[in-house]
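Reviewers asked in the last cycle whether our approach scales beyond single polypeptides. To address this, we selected a multi-component target totalling 551 residues and predicted its structure end to end. The input consisted of the following lines:
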Amino acid sequence: MEIRVKCNCGEGNCPEWAILELQGAVEAQPSFQGRLQNLQIGILCRPSSQEVYTFTVGYHELTGSKVSLKKPLLVLKKTKYSDPDHEIGESDFSSRVELEVIGVIRHRILFKTRPKAIISKPQPAVKERVGMPGSVVSNQTA
Amino acid sequence: MFIPYLAREREAEMEQPQLGCSGAEAILNLPPSSSISIAYHPLFGPHDDLILLELDEKLLPEVLQQRITLRGQPDEDAVLCTRSKTYAVKFVGTSNSVFLIPPSDQSEFCENSLDCIGKDYDQQVVASVIKSAPGNMELVEVAPRLDKLKLLLSVNPYRFGEDIEMEDLEETEKSYTGLYKWDDLVEQVQASDEELRSALKALSAVEIGGYWRIVDDKYMDTILSMLLHDSVLNDWSLDLLNEDEVVSMLESDGFPQKLARHCLHVYGTKVDENVDKRVWRLDERRVCVHFAREILKEGKRKMDTFMAKWMQKIPEGMRASFDMLEGEVLTERLGVETWVRAFSVSSLPFSPAERFSILFRERPKWEWKDLLPYIRDLKVPGLSSEGLLLKFTRRTQPTLDAEPVFSAR
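The resulting structure, written as structure tokens, was:
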């Protein structure tokens, strides 16, 4: 079976996607579980002309930087087509798989520091939970 | 309804970029002293159909020109092929949260700006996370999986009388008799195009009627013998064979043109590309090895008998020496006699693990000089021949001045 990897980006470059990467997991308040769409996660700031960034999620502030990836990442979209004309029971390839390159990632903003707590803020909808091995899950309230 | 988190104090310090909904480009080009809100995209979800693949920069042109394919049967691990190389595809997971943000004009995810979170923040720009990626795929260069090719083509080697039979077969009948066109081989064999072509050449396969075939030994022996017979009859020099003359004579002997040319390719080398005539020189080693194999077909022979027979069989003007048979025969001492038997590297698997397994089954211990001809052709990306030996063999040296001996691990 051969699946050709399609790419309609042309000779130029594919659209560039971005990655924000955090160590740990972001957790929404229980009332928002399963309805995350459109929910704000936090604010990304670039305080100076340097490639240094802060990401504020709930009452945590993370510090990170924009780094170039050693090797680019391709964003591929997999599409499965089922052939409606095939009878049931006929062998294999009644479904076809297609792969298409829809983007490329060359940079990510990586946050590696321990979150800094920002004091006296209203209860956020989304908070950052530090899930690193050996650490205690922070449970601070405003 | 959701409760927005507003870092109002921070906002006051920061500039706000333009209106509207935006994506990756807003993040990647975030100006100094500015901020951007990050939210879950209106279509945020698992999106299992979105896959990240790590790729070397130098392979990017291949991707843009759509020369990359995934090959493999449903029961095999997929490999990714460029025109000339094969890569295993592995998933590498991460425990980090990897938020994927598409560019704002990404058609599949572009929502009407009314749906954008921006509407509630007319001063604020928002970048949306479409998915949190669990990890990405990585490529590891591997040797092409060519043993399957040998297997497939050995099912139905081209033999005598077949050209006549083929004409009578229906198209549907043909597909059941193990015949493969180039496209069929691409479907079945996990190798890049170049590696596949290379392997076909190494197997002395020939394309007949659109199908790639290995020609059976008996047939090759007959056609070669006929060529040599014709050379004597017509006083041709084996170093200057005229392709057209040879082919036309073999045709009148009853061989298809394709096979006649194939015979020259297998046993000869082209001399100076002449525009008008194509000239071939028979390769002494290849011809002599052929006759040695023919003699040993029935089983092992005593060295003296073998050598005598061999000298008889080879064409006038050719010289055979035992070292030509490196990688083709094995010798053993039985009593006072030395015996020779056929053991050709070309009959062994391409895959190193299986190759060594068969080698050690044949002989538990090998000296380096005997082993080399049987492993010289093994190619594993990232492994030198020393590396290969380290991985698959155990090396012992009985005494300091004795030859090292290799055995199974």
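Chain B touches chain A through 72 residues (CB under 8 Å). We regard this as preliminary and will revisit it once experimental data from Aim 1 are available.
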